[in-house]
Amino acid sequence: MFNVLVVEDDGSLRKLMCAALRQNGYNPLSADNGETALDVLDTEQVDLVIADIMMPVMDGFELTEALRSSGYNMPILIVTAKMDFSDKQKGFMLGADDYMVKPIDVGEMILRVGALLRRAQIAHEHMLTVGSVTLDYNALAVRRGSETETLPKKEFYLLFMLLSYPDVIFTRRQLLDEIWGMEHDVDERTVDVHIRRLRERYEDNPDFEIVTVRGLGYKAVKKA
């Protein structure tokens, strides 16, 4: 079970966020400011941090900066009432991974938490083997027998994502959020284009195939 640390000075909102996380299979931890959050991190393994910006003692910006400067690499989701682009830019420059503006939809929060955790898991699992095929995350390479093919970055990440969770259906929006993140000028057709390219590359592959689930999205299926 993933431990998610909620850092929010509004007690009612903090309880609501923790309840939603618990209902969706996460183990929520809580803190009312950045300094208290650092105390929690001294004693608990934390897989993801959700942090408000405007808090007493130590705000979300200061917390994010402190975590990154101390070598913590877990995903950080900023949740705040501040809507200015400059605030978002500062958060990302300090090391935040995603950003939500209050009032938040807890359902969307859960989706973002799942996306960030999956992306982090992919980044840490540098090798993936499916049948006779091995994907090397660091080299963006797909190996089968004596043959090695280096893929364009987004194609590789997409293939790695799907094969990491065989038989799990991902919507186009989920794949966009996880692979393209905050990039501009991309939409759901971008996913379709990359899926088509991957199918053309591996149409004769005996180990897996990428299946379209009508009305839902895509999934990878192991053949063997």
Explain this structure.
This protein is α/β, with parallel strands linked by helices. Helices cover 43% and strands 23% of the residues. It contains 8 helices and 11 strands. The chain has helices at 11-23, 34-43, 60-69, 85-94, 106-124, 153-164, 172-180, 188-201; strands spanning 3-7, 27-31, 48-52, 76-80, 98-101, 127-130, 133-136, 141-144, 147-150, 208-213, 217-222. Strands 2-1-3-4-5 form a 5-stranded parallel β-sheet, sandwiched between helices. A 4-stranded antiparallel β-sheet has the order 6-7-8-9, covered by helices on one side. α7 crosses α8. The longest helix has 19 residues, at 106-124.
Attribute tags:
224 residues; alpha/beta; 5-stranded parallel sheet; 4-stranded antiparallel sheet; 8 helices; 11 strands; elongated
Quick overview:
The protein is α/β, with parallel strands linked by helices.
Low-confidence stretches: none
Which overall shape is indicated by the principal axes computed on the Cα atoms? elongated
Average of the residue pLDDT scores: 90
Strand content: 15-25%
- Radius of gyration, rounded? 19 Å
User: Structural class of the secondary elements?
Assistant: alpha/beta
Report, as a whole number of angstroms, the end-to-end distance: 29 Å
The count of β-strands is 11
Question: What's the helix count?
Answer: 8
N-to-C SSE series?
Answer: EHEHEHEHEHEEEEHHHEE
| Major β-sheet profile | 5 strands, parallel
Report strand order across the widest sheet: 2-1-3-4-5
Range of helix content: 40-55%
